[in-house]
Amino acid sequence: VEQDYLQSKTEEYGLDGLADPKEQALLLLERVDTIPPSLALGQTAYESGYGTSRFAVEGNALFGQWTYSGKGMKPAEHRASKGNYSVKAYEWPFDSVRSYMKNLNSHDAYQGLRDKRAELRREGKDVSGLVLAESLSSYSEKGMEYVKTLKSIITANDLEVADSTTLRDELVSLIVGIEKAEDVAETENKIEELRASGELDRIIKDMRLK
What we know:
Blueprint: H1 2-12, H2 21-31, H3 37-48, H4 54-59, E1 66-67, E2 86-87, H5 93-106, H6 111-122, H7 129-133, H8 144-156, H9 184-197, H10 199-207
Antiparallel strand pairs: 1-2
């Protein structure tokens, strides 16, 4: 089972073509590694306007990632010179986070971030969002101006405190928002219907909550 999991990850991160298993394992360890919470929080604040952008509200797109698949959300001011791009939309916010992490951990443009993170690991230092932010000039056309603003967001909001926190070891709760008090009973009935039909289990499985 462990070997199957390892093989699936090497394929997922495009490392299955390497002949040397040791090199394959070392490169995989450099890719399947943490993204500091402060960096992720800072980037989603920047890219989604603190969660208020149309892409975030309508498409759960928290990190402004582009796609050329023909699917996604077209920007109001589409730049023809950049091709037929759109902002990738997601069914769940978690999917946006997973896609963002995979992007930083696998795309060639962010090799510098992975190298810096590995260097911090070797030196026994904390993996800091502010430090890794220096490697993200390729994330935006704004280059180092993007990096400067991103670091300002992390600092101004004291986001680095999140880098040293851990989640409590308890079950994750799925919270359903209800705008009007009179809708509580109806919502509870719908949840029970979903539970009885097995649909609720499917939804939670799709979100991959444990």
